[in-house]
Specification:
Blueprint: E1 7-12, E2 20-25, E3 28-31, E4 38-39, H1 40-44, E5 50-59, E6 62-69, E7 79-81, H2 83-87, H3 92-110, E8 122-123, E9 130-132, E10 137-139, E11 144-153, E12 156-161, E13 173-176, H4 183-195, E14 198-210, E15 215-226, E16 238-243, H5 256-269
Parallel strand pairs: 2-6, 11-15
Antiparallel strand pairs: 1-5, 2-3, 2-4, 3-7, 5-6, 8-9, 9-10, 11-12, 11-13, 12-16, 14-15
Length: 282
Amino acid sequence: MTRPRRWTTAVLDTQAAGGWAVVHSDQGFLRDGNGVMFPREWLKRQALPLISEHGIGHFDGEPVYVQVLRHPVELEGTSWHTLRQFMLADDADVFQKLGYAAQISTWAREHRFCGSCGQPMQQVPRERAMYCKDCDLRSYPRISPSMIVLITRGDEVLLARSPRFVPGVYSTLAGFAEPGESAEDCVRREVMEEVQIKVKNIQYKGSQCWPFPHSMMLGFHAEYDSGEIVPQADEIEDAQWFSIHDMPPLPASRSIARYLIDLYLAQKSGAAEPVLPGQADG
C-alpha cells in the first residue's frame, strides 16, 4: 500500500495553538538531537527574536510552521545547519519541507515593508500574501524562472565550473530568464554568454524547485551546433568537453543538474533512466 505523502504545503492559521515549527535565520535551520521540528508551545517560551511566523503545511499529517528570526540564537542542545547540508543528507522529504520553509522565510523577511511606500506590511489571513493597506498592494512569494542545460556532442558532454562551486566539481550551464524571453531563448543566450557556442535541438526534460533562494529550474538537453569554448570571465572558471566514459566530480544526486547528466548517460548505455528529483512516488 502506498504511504501518504510526508510533506504537503498549506496555508495554516498562525493563531491556532499547538503544532510544530522549524526555525530559520540567516545561518540556516535550528536542529537538535531529534531533528528540525520543535513544539511551537516550547518555542514560545524561548523568547526568540521573531520577525514573523507562517503556517506552511503538514508533515506526516502534523501542522508545521516556520518561525523567521531577526538573527540566530544559541539554545542549549541545538545547532544551526544550512539548507545545503540538508540537501546532501539522506531524507528527501525533510529537504523538500525545509526548501519550502526557506523560501517562505526569505519572502517574509524581504517583504516586511511595502516596496512602494515603505510602510509595514501585514500577513493576509488564509492567503500566502503580505498586504499594504495604504497602497492596496499585495506581495506574493517570488519564483524566479531559470534554465539549466546539458549540452552534448556524441559521447561528450560540456561541463563547466563556477568559482563558487565545491573544488573539483563540474556541472551543467544555467542562468536566469530575462523579461520577455522564452525558456529556449534563455538557453541559447546563456550558453552563448557563458561559453560562446551555439546549440540546436533544444528539448525540455523537467523542472525542479531550487530554494537557493527562490528559483524554478527548467531543465533542458541541447546538442552542440558550432563554435569553440571561450569561458565567460568572472562567471566560468573552466569549461570542457568530457567523455561520458571519463567524467569529473559531479553535482549532488538530488539536483536537476545531476539528473540531466545521469539521464543522458542512461540513454547512451541503455540503463534504466533516473527519476527526476522530487518526482518519486511516496
